[in-house]
Amino acid sequence: MTTRLIRSGFAAIALATAPIAATAADLPRRVPLPPALAVAPAFNWSGFYLGINGGGIWGNSDWKAGATTTGIDTSGGLIGGTIGANWQTGFWVFGLEADLDWASNDGTTTTNCAGSGCFTENSWLGTARGRVGFAADRFMPYLTGGAAFGNVKAHFNTLPETSTTKTGWTVGGGVEFAVAGNWTAKLEYLYVDLGSFSCTTANCGTPGPVDVDLTANVFRAGLNYKFEYGAPGPVVARY
Questions:
Q1: Which residues is 68 bridged to in the sheet?
Q2: pTM: predicted TM-score of the whole model, two decimal places
Q3: What digits encode the pLDDT tens for the residues 126-181?
Q4: Alpha-carbon dihedral 153, 154, 155, 160, rounded to 10 degrees
Q5: Exposed/middle/buried for 103, CB within 10 Å: 0-12, 13-18, 19+?
Q6: Does any domain span residue 38?
Q7: What is the C-alpha separation between 221 and 101, in angstroms, rounded?
Q8: Would 163 be classed as within a structural domain?
């Protein structure tokens, strides 16, 4: 009798748990999640940088004596150094940049200038500018503007030249790329206006004095090294 009761108990338990076992067998197997994938952070433009730049310069110098204006086309090249700093917030990059370049930008004309002609030269050029850029990871277009400084020389024929340092303004824009590590490269255009100065008869002939001005278009490339500042950590993502 006891053996029959035990067998009946096991049979009842088996019948009760059979639906549960069948339901568990029908459940889908658990698929493990893939390992976390580390994603490289976006390039951070914030920081202090040093660089070099160089390119071409094309401009115009007007000699104005009374009602007569004589235009002189100038051209040449420039090369020098750059210093600056950026601060990035979100996609926007705000910066300050200064540069100082040796320049060989000159021209002459014999129109209204008998003999060897009227001569204008710009031998060095510097700027101090603000920049506003929009960062698309490693690519940043930007606008820039500020003050310009330069040396302007002028003379007529074989008269001694007069030389002055002028302060003016500049505006332009460019694109900058993060190329490798902390190195960035840029292409830039600037319009420069150094204003005018009065050149006396002793240097610029008669009728004098002559007002000599200089404007220029600068196309140049640059290479900068950015010192690390506030670099973000890696971003972890799952598929």
A1: 65
A2: 0.79
A3: 999 999 999 999 999 999 999 999 999 999 999 999 999 999 999 999 999 999 98
A4: -20
A5: buried
A6: no
A7: 13
A8: yes
Structure token digits, residue 180: 């490798």
Residue of 143, 110, 150, 111 whose CA lies nearest to 127: 150
Residue 185: burial class (beta carbons within 10 Å; 0-12, 13-18, 19+): middle
CB 178 within 8 A of CB 152: no
Q: Which residues, other chains included, contact 182 with Cβ-Cβ below 8 Å and sequence gap of 6+?
A: 225, 226, 227, 228
Residue 91, sorted as left (phi over 0), alpha (psi -120 to 50) or beta, turns out to be alpha
Which residue blocks in the chain are alpha helix, DSSP H?
2-26, 201-204
Structurally, the chain folds into a number of domains equal to: 1
* Whole-number Å distance between alpha carbons of 61 and 31: 76
Domain membership of residue 173 as a residue range: 46-226
Residue of 100, 98, 91 lying closest to 48 (CA atoms)? 98
Task: State how far the Cα of 200 lies from the Cα of 120, in Å rounded to an integer.
Answer: 14
> Can you give the CATH number for the domain in which 62 is found?
2.40.160.20
User: Which value, in Å, is the radius of gyration of the alpha carbons in the chain?
Assistant: 36
Size (the chain), residues: 239
